[in-house]
Write a structure and sequence with these properties.
Pathway: Amino-acid biosynthesis; L-leucine biosynthesis; L-leucine from 3-methyl-2-oxobutanoate: step 2/4. Heterodimer of LeuC and LeuD. Its EC number is 4.2.1.33. The structure is a single chain. The chain is mainly β. The chain is 9% helix and 17% strand. It is built from 2 helices and 3 strands. A 3-stranded mixed sheet has the order 1-2-3, with no helix packed on it. Strand 2 and strand 3 form a beta hairpin. The protein starts with 11 loop residues before the first strand and ends with a strand. The mean pLDDT is 83.
C-alpha cells in the first residue's frame, strides 16, 4: 500500500480534456510488462508525439510545453481530475 501524504508541492500541468480514456493515458502497446512502474516515458504517447516511433514531439500538446517540464501533477476535467506524475 502506498504511503499517505498530507502535502505535495509541485508544478501543475492543466490538461484541457475531460473523461480521458485510459488508452490515451498509457497506450496498450506499452502495457506489456508485469511491473507498475516505468510508464512515464509513454504517458499520453499518442498525444505527445506526431510520429509512431515517439521521436517527433507535438508542439501543441501541453506536456511538451517548456514551462511544464518537470511537472509532478496533472490536472484535468471530468473523471481524470488529478494525477500525480512524480
Amino acid at each position: 500500500m502506498a504511503e499517505k501524504f498530507i502535502k505535495h508541492t509541485g508544478l501543475v500541468v492543466p490538461l484541457d480534456a475531460a473523461n480521458v480514456d485510459t488508452d490515451a493515458i498509457i497506450p496498450k502497446q506499452f502495457l506489456q510488462k508485469v511491473t507498475r512502474t516505468g510508464f512515464g516515458a509513454h504517458l499520453f504517447n499518442d498525444w505527445r508525439f506526431l510520429d509512431e516511433k515517439g521521436q517527433q514531439p507535438n508542439p501543441d500538446f501541453v506536456l511538451n510545453f517548456p514551462q511544464y517540464q518537470g511537472a509532478s501533477i496533472l490536472l484535468a476535467r471530468g473523471k481524470l481530475r488529478l494525477w500525480l506524475l512524480a
